Amino acid sequence: xxxxxxxxxxxxxxxxxxxxxxxxxxxxxxxxxxxxxxxxxxxxxxxxxxxxxxxxxxxxxxxxxxxxxx
Length: 70
Hints:
Helix content: 40-55%
Order of helices and strands: HEHEH
C-alpha cells in the first residue's frame, strides 16, 4: 500500500468491501490534505473522509472543509 493511496485504488478497495459487507459505511483517511482532498471527496462509495494531521492547523482544516463543501 501507498500512503496516500490513489483515489482510484481507494474506489477499488471500497468496491471490494461492499461486496463483502454491502451496508458498511467506509471512510478514507490516508494522508488527506488541502492539495488532494477534492480528489478523494469525489471517490465513489465513500461515506466520508478522516482528516488527521492536517486538522491540527486550523487554517489548513478550514480550507479542507471549504474545498469539500464546494
